[in-house]
Amino acid sequence: MKKLLPLLTLTLLSSAAAKTDVTFMYGLGGELGKAIESMIKQFNAAQNDVTVRGEFANDYEGVVQKALAGIAAGQPSADILQLEVSYVPRIAASGALLNLKTMPGFQKSFDSFWPVFKTQVTRDDGNVYSMPWNNSNPVLYYNPELLKKAGMTTPPRTYPQLRAAAKKIKDATGVAAIALPSFPWVLEGAIWSNGGEVVDNGKLLLDQPAAKEVITDWAGFFRDGSAVLQTPNTTADFAAGKVAMFMASVASRPGLNASVPFKFGTAPLPYYKKPVVPVGGATLAISKGVSKERQDAAWKFITWLAQPEQQFTWIKMANYVPITRTTSRLPAYQAYVKSVPGLEIGGQQLPYARPRPTTAGYVQGTQEIIKALDKIFLQSAPIDATLGDLVQRTQPLFKDTK
Amino acid sequence: MTDFTQVSTQISVTKPRKSHSQLTALLGATPYLLPALLIFVVFTYYPLLRVIYLSFTDADMLSQAQWVGLSNYREMLANAEFWSSFKITVIFALAVTLTEVILGMALAFLMNAPTRLRTLLRGAVFAPVVVSLAATAVVWNYLLSPNAGPINGLLKSVGLPESGWLTDPKTALASVIMVAVWKGVGLPAVLYLAGLQGISRELEEAASIDGAGRFTVARHITIPLLAPTTLVVFFISLMGTFQSYGLVLLLTRGGPAGSTNLLGYYIYQNAFSFFQMGMASALSVALFLLLLSLGFLQLKLAERRVHYQ
Predict the structure, then answer these.
(1) Do the beta carbons of residue B149 and residue B142 sit within 8 Å?
(2) Residues of chain A whose C-beta is under 8 A from some C-beta in B?
(3) What is the pLDDT of residue A8?
(4) ipTM greater than 0.90, yes or no?
(5) Distance from CA of B269 to the nearest CA of A (A)
(6) I need a labelling partner for A397 at 20 to 30 A (CA). Which of A287, B1, B40, B111 fits?
(7) Helix B186-198 and helix B172-184: axis angle, to 10°?
(8) Is A150 in contact with A173 (CB distance < 8 Å)?
């Protein structure tokens, strides 16, 4: 036994040394952060080649800041980066991210994704620098009791119905019927559903008729007193019965389950002429500056996460939408979403989902849009003039957009 | 004449000796000073010089920076957003600083009064200073929530109109100022308390014997003698508030409608959200020069107006 002990120790040590350690920097906290750590733990337990270590960067901006610092220092801040979709093109253009098309088995993994997610991550040159993972689309959350007080048994399906419902709820209950956001994610879907575009041909198109019609309609909610601005407090307001409806990501559900004391309802996102929803969330990229061994190890983790079984485990914890068709078809997934009313909506909306604009100037443009919408919604600023000024001011940001 | 020669000889002999001893002292002290100096060079002076350099480039941290001369400064001065942010910062800095000076002094008088609640009051006033900024933001976000927040609930229960607080462009800046004062007033209060305890009681007693009331003593004796403390409080608060960005980042993200977009946050956004490190550096240099001038003005003012005991 004494002779065997050093041999055993050596074997254990050599097997441990053979493992490749990779770091995964993510930006989701709370319940979703716990879900990520759980996925990492499961991956580490499921195989013997790679050890993933999670690093929490506070939020998506935190991941970008650390990634930038790493790029500037010439030393990648992490092997795997969870990047919000709008940041990917700019960082990829700097050459800091690995073109994942060069990785083994890429095409097979990529082909399994829903088309909307393939479009989202494919750059103009056809290269792919990040793989879909935690992606979602927005839905309408509502308080059934407040709707009932307004004489409604079903949630509104279209924006005209939403407008009528909002007036009824406000009159019947006195509380704000809906919290509308000035962050333009949900608005993008509304504009597309009205036949418009957000960015095209080198400019922001919010001053065009289809977009202007939507913004005017949304401003109407504020002007007749049935809407309040969506803020970080909206969930608490909804939980306290002070707001009857709001539109947010399907992945908001775990947070709502933890804080809302009543049985809330979930409905598909309202639309104008045809149903369209925007998708959002983050994708997983690999730093180009790390060794080939680490790149391979990182790729192994990313492709593992995209497997239907892992996707299903992740969806159960985080309530994101399935990113692959195979996950959507999984009997266990289908049985699960049927067991929780409203959970199936995110997946059902995927056939008419569109990726968000990802042009380099859109991150900064978004801040300008928020300011303009705040002025229109909260200060009753003239819509035509404010949107005209917004488009004019943001022209340099979009001049290279095709 | 002889005397002069003797003196000049003495000087010419002692001067090298003195500078030699100074040099020896410096050499002796250098090993002790070096670690601190190194830290300053690496973490303060080098970044400062680097920011100045970056302000003349189109740096974005993603690609090789190119020299663009004064382009960032020209763009900054022509940008309405910069001027709006500058105006908001001046309002914020002056409002917070003046309130902290006045309220800090008033609280110090209360904290210095010989009451049974003195210790409790001192603790209560200073506690927010040690509370983390994140916790402050969470608590105040809840307190000021327009729909479910307890402050609006209280206002409503006594028949007063509710406010949008952080969500209304008309009240957002005032709300952030209020939170900043709550968070920061403890330090000026403690500094004033130290100042008050350093004032000789004989002066106040002499004035009282001469018939001066408490208010007159405070106005003509105590407050003027607190001038050095006021200078320190004013300087610390003004420098801090001009550079402030954390509170806005956590409470409002510069909104709504850009009404709380402080220069510090505007710099942060340019650097880390928009990848415009060159512009962010130019803005930082402008802020640095502004603070340098303010500091200089303040010191000049202090030379003329501050009385020391």
Answers:
(1) yes
(2) 61, 64-65, 68-69, 71-72, 90-91, 93-94, 96, 175-176, 182, 228-229, 231-233, 236-237, 239-240, 242-243, 363-364, 367, 370-371, 374-375, 378-379
(3) 54
(4) no
(5) 9
(6) A287
(7) 40
(8) yes
Separation CA B279–CA B163 (nearest Å): 36
Q: Tell me if residue A227 falls in helix, strand or coil.
A: strand
d(CA B150, CA B246): 24
For residue A244, give how far its alpha carbon lies from the nearest alpha carbon of chain B (Å): 12
Half-sphere exposure of B84 (CA within 13 A, CB side): 14
**Domain annotation for chain A: domains and CATH numbers:** 15-135+281-349 (3.40.190.10), 138-278+357-395 (3.40.190.10)
Q: Which amino acid is at A293?
A: E
Q: Is the separation of the CB atoms in B189 and B237 below 8 Å? A: no
Indicate the CATH number for domain B80-305: 1.10.3720.10
DSSP state of A357: P
For B6-31, the pLDDT digits (tens) are: 444 444 444 556 677 888 888 888 89
| Nearest-CA distance B282 → chain A (Å) | 18
CB contact under 8 Å between A61 and B273, yes or no, is yes
Helix, strand or coil for residue A53? strand
pLDDT in tens, A144-164: 999 999 999 999 999 999 999
d(CA A238, CA A283): 29
Stretch among A13-27, A43-57, B143-157, B280-294 having the lowest mean pLDDT = A13-27
Domain residue ranges of chain B, discontinuous segments joined by +: 80-305
Report the C-alpha gap between A258 and A264 in whole angstroms: 12
Least CB-CB distance to A228: which of B141, B147, B254? Answer: B147
- The minimal CB distance from B257 to the residues A61, A231, A374 is found for A374
Provide the residue count of chain A: 402
Q: For chain B, which ranges sit under pLDDT 70?
A: 1-18, 305-309
Q: Quick one: which of A55, A60, A51, A47 has its CA closest to A24?
A: A55
- Cα–chain-centroid distance for residue A377? 24
Of B145, B166, B269, Cβ closest to residue A237: B145
* Residue A271 near residue A118, CB atoms below 8 Å: no
Residues B272/A65, Cβ–Cβ less than 8 Å: yes
Tokens of A158: 């279209």
Is A12 a residue whose pLDDT tops 70? Answer: no
State how far the Cα of A267 lies from the Cα of B135, in Å rounded to an integer: 34
CA B3 to chain centre: 56
Count CB-CB contacts under 10 A for residue B29. Answer: 10
pLDDT for residue A402 is more than 70: no
Looking at residue B182, what is its pLDDT? 96
Q: Report pLDDT digits (tens) over A300-341.
A: 999 999 999 999 999 998 889 999 999 999 999 999 988 888
Of B78, B98, B128, nearest to B238 (Cα)? B98
Q: Is B274 on the interface with A (CB under 8 A)?
A: yes
- DSSP summary character for residue A150: T
Neighbours of B114 (CB within 10 A): 5
Taking the C-alpha atoms of A216, A221, A227 and A231 in order, what is their torsion angle to the nearest 10 degrees?
-10
